[in-house]
Amino acid sequence: MNISLNSLFALVVAGIAMVAYDWRSMKDIRTKAVYLVLFGCGFTLSVTLLFYPELPGPSDLLRPIFAPAAKLLLK
Questions:
Q1: Which residues, including other chains, have CB under 8 Å from residue 3's CB and lie 6 or more apart?
Q2: Per the UniProt record, which residue ranges are transmembrane (predicted)?
Q3: Structural domain boundaries enclosing 57
Q4: Exposure string (b/e) for 1-36, b if CB count within 10 Å is 16 or more?
């Protein structure tokens, strides 16, 4: 685990700033709930990738799925 505390601190500060900026413009409680769920998922993924940068990303997951279609289209 090669993590810099400065990077983690910057990630947390950026997350707090994003929530604080967007929270005021949301009126409906459902919108706020969906925002928090999506933000929480994204923030968790960001912190996980900060701790373990060797983990495969979303494009690595989709590449084998779409590789046959790419071969057909790029002939």
A1: 50, 51
A2: 6-21, 33-52
A3: 5-73
A4: eeeeeeeeeeeeeebeeeeeeeeeeeeeeeeeeeee
pLDDT tens-digit profile of 27-72? 999 999 999 999 999 999 888 888 888 888 778 888 888 988 888 8
The amino acid at 36: L
Predicted TM-score of the model (pTM) = 0.71
- Contact (Cβ atoms closer than 8 angstroms) between residue 7 and residue 50: yes
Instruction: Count CB atoms within 10 A of the CB of residue 46.
Output: 14
